[in-house]
């Protein structure tokens, strides 16, 4: 059992296995995203209230899902790194942070664009948007903390602790922001949670969500691989790899 | 030179001791030490309070002296200003101990580090959070906060700043090894302060409108309980990381 | 009485650089072990590992034949570590500083013992001055007073001779030897040349990747 976990965590093994996995996720991501967006943008029916502007949901929702999932994955990777000292987990956490921040930004930006036709303004202190904004700050904090240390080992540990502290706080923040929002603006229209979305609307959404997740996994694998090469560049197996390539 | 095989019995300096000194002695001594240190630098202790008063002065000047408007936004203003004032003093929580090496020694004490750091955080709250809470009603008068909400204002701040000190100490512990940790500390800690801010202002607003405040205070208490359970471990782990940076 | 700290195949990597690898070492009661090596060879890091502060290392560390992770509490109760920084609070008097250190190990201690300890390091008459008003050497002496005050078997001292005048150096050296004779052990790094004695052993760091010294 332990041997297996450590084998899984060995950079060399991860590098080899991820090379095999990576193409599948890229193919899945491309297929799902292309199908989903064609379906969602061209074929799904227009919304009876919002018309065609609702279609931004096909980007907004998957990005928002992913933004939250990435933070959780990052915290789990941090925990794995802290408990079992598996370096690959930290490398994955390091590459996930900017990706998560980018997803959070995309979901905020698409939310703002969506706000123009829906609310007539670029920004509303909507509960979801506010939570997303706070999530963005949490991401920026983790990235900044990692960058602030001169010793990379310390940076990794500090970023792991902060990610774990953040992930405990995310549900609390979400709950309190929701509470705050209902207190100040009872029963207004929120952009995503609406009852009874017809099948032909949510099915492409499902494809998009799955596509985004595949894209995230593929990109994380790819960037973790290059991070492995960068950090392990003085190890023998990497040098042999380079020589083989030449 | 001959090292004798039989160790001299008389020398107490070399007998192996057993762990299990009194934890309360260590905690009390740490509380006392930090209190003494802070009280000897009274000027530094007053800074957050002056800052609090100053920021509150800026708002009527920047927005409007209209009492009705001020009364409306007073709960939020007071809470945000107190939160920033508490944040301001956080950077120094572990910094001087880090610089003079006593933090290293604190970690090598045969006592749980989480408990000892909790003692340090308690002193921080006692000398910043609590005075801020006591001072807030005075500033509330200046912002035309309706009478009847002063007690709740002080109470919510006293409860809330305890959570803020605990959460903030995690950030302070993470950044203590960095030469310029101040701004970074705010970036790390402020997002985590939001729930406390929401329920803190919520309590005062409810008091202003004459609604029940027990729910708000209960949630503030729950947040504090959660912070008391989790934060000491996170602080201890963060200190261990920083000391080896 | 048993006192045995030993490390097997100790290695420490910091940011992809091996500070040392394959280090075996043993410290027993009655020994002074001097860690030697050029700057940056990992002396301080080794002391931090041996004093249980740094847990990021490879290899195994035992305290009285128990793995360090399990023996940590017992180990800390018998350890006195003095680092680069003396750990003396400028805002407190020497007496208050010592009092806190005693309390950290859970003892209330008594004032007479603290006065005696300060006197033994040549600080009689300075007991009630804020430590911030003392010189660097005097502050170091406050820290060294803990050697007298808190009876611990294992001393791990990182450059203890820094900032101390010549007489102080001689006194401290005599103190280390006395501690070893009494059955205690000392692990020390220093640029000061220690007088040869049978108790003294040297461990050399920073000569290539694989080394084990004695």
TrEMBL record, chain A:
Where does this protein chiefly localize?
A: membrane
Q: Quote one Gene Ontology molecular function term.
A: heme transmembrane transporter activity
Domain Cytochrome c assembly protein stretches: 13-184
Q: InterPro entries under this entry?
A: Cyt_c_assembly, Cyt_c_biogenesis_CcmC, Cyt_c_biogenesis_CcsA/CcmC
Instruction: List the Pfam families.
Output: Cytochrom_C_asm (PF01578)
UniProt-annotated location(s): Cell inner membrane; Membrane
Gene Ontology BP annotations: cytochrome complex assembly
**An example Gene Ontology CC term for this record:** plasma membrane
Question: Would the keyword Transmembrane turn up in this protein's UniProt record?
Answer: yes
Q: What is this entry's stated membrane topology?
A: Multi-pass membrane protein
The residues that cross the membrane are: 21-43, 63-84, 91-117, 129-149, 161-181, 201-221
Q: Per the record's keyword annotation, is Transmembrane helix included, yes or no? A: yes
**Keywords, alphabetical:** Cell inner membrane, Cell membrane, Cytochrome c-type biogenesis, Membrane, Transmembrane, Transmembrane helix, Transport
Give the matching NCBIfam families.
Answer: ccmC
Family per similarity comment: Belongs to the CcmC/CycZ/HelC family.
Function statement:
Required for the export of heme to the periplasm for the biogenesis of c-type cytochromes.
Please identify the protein, giving its name as recorded: Heme exporter protein C
Organism per entry: Vreelandella rituensis
From TrEMBL, chain C:
Q: Which GO terms describe its molecular function?
A: ATP binding; ATP hydrolysis activity; transmembrane transporter activity
Q: Which residues form the ABC transporter domain?
A: 5-214
Q: Which UniProt keywords apply?
A: ATP-binding, Cytochrome c-type biogenesis, Membrane, Nucleotide-binding, Translocase, Transport
Q: What is the protein's name according to its record? A: Cytochrome c biogenesis heme-transporting ATPase CcmA
Query: Mind telling me which PROSITE patterns this protein's record contains?
Result: ABC_TRANSPORTER_2 (PS50893)
What is the organism of origin for this protein?
Vreelandella rituensis
Enumerate the Gene Ontology biological process terms: cytochrome complex assembly
Q: One Pfam family, short name please?
A: ABC_tran
Coiled-coil region(s): none
Q: Does the keyword Translocase apply?
A: yes
